[in-house]
Design brief:
2 domains, Helicase, Ruva Protein, domain 3, Rossmann fold, two-stranded antiparallel sheet
Amino acid sequence: MTAETVDSLLAEGTRVLAASAAAGAARLDAELLLAHVLGEPRSLLRSHPEDPLAPAAAARFRGLLGRRAAGEPLAYLTGRREFWSLDLAVTPAVLVPRPETELLVERALALGPPGAARVADLGTGSGAIALALARERPRWHIVATDVSPAALEVARANGAALGVASVEFLAGSWLEPLGGRRFDLLLSNPPYVGADDPALLADPALGFEPPLALTPPGGDALESLRLLARGAAAHLAPGGWLLLEHGADQGPEVRALLVAAGFAHVRSHRDLAGHERMTEGQR
C-alpha cells in the first residue's frame, strides 16, 4: 500500500472542502489543518510535499476535515486565532475574533490618550479587544467584563499567555461589574444578530458559536446596543467616549440611540469592506 504524503492529503482536503460549506478558502484551510495536526508551520508542508504521514496523523486530519466541511469554524478546530497580531486561544465558549473588530481597536487608540487612561471592554469574550489595547497602551488600566465564566477563563488564560498584567477581568453583565467607576473609554462588540437574521441560516459557522455572543436575549438585534447606549454615560468621565461595533446595516439606528442618550460627536466608521461597522459618541 502506497504511503500517504503531505501532498496527497492536501489534495484530498482541498477537494473535500471545495465541495462543502467551507468552500471559500479550501486549500488554505486544508493546509492550516494539516499544519496543526503535524505541529509544523505551513512552509514545511510546501517545502516537503513528498513526506509520508503516519496513519494516525492522516486519520486525525480527516476527522478535523470532516468537521470543517460541516461548517465548524477553523479557529475552534485549531484552538487558535490571530487578532491584532496577537496569537489567541479560542474555544467554543467565545466568539471567534473577526478582522472587522480591529476597527474598534483602531478607533480606541485614536480617541484615547497616549498616557494613562481608564478603559473598559464590555463583553470581552476571548479578551481580544482588551489585550490588543493593553499591548498598544501599557499605561492604560483596562477592565474587561463578561457574563460567561467560561469566556472569562479563556480571556484570563490569553492574558497570562501574553504576559499582560494591565487588564482586570470582572464577571457580570455589561456595565454591572463596573460599580461606581468612571472611564475614559467604553468599548463593546455586543451581540447584534437578530433571531430572524438570514445570516444565521446562510452561514453554518454561526451555528457553532455561542448564541449569547451572537443574538441578544429575546432575539431583538438592537437590545444589547440599546442597553449600552442608555447606561454608558453613568460610567463615563466627562468627555469620555463610547464605541460600539454593530451590524453592517445598523449604523443609522445606533447613531439615533446615541443621540437620544445625549452623546455628542456621534459618527460611524466603515470597515475594509465598506460597511458601517462601528459607531462612537462622546459624553
